[in-house]
Amino acid sequence: MKTRIQELRKKNKLSQDELASIVGVTRQTITSLEGEKYTASLVLAYKISKYFGLSIEEVFDFSEVEGINDGSI
User: Does the keyword DNA-binding apply (predicted)?
Assistant: First the structure.
């Protein structure tokens, strides 16, 4: 899943370690989210979005998630 985490983190001059500490995960989790190798849980997505003052949809791109845009959900 595509995210704006790296863009937002850099804009706010945060390292991966700093953001990880703020939201209670490891740096590896932030790396995996930024590299689109991991999908955040709802709780983690909420924490990250809330930290940046944005909605979950403003941080995470759901356009490629199966069922989201085809009307089946």
Answer: yes
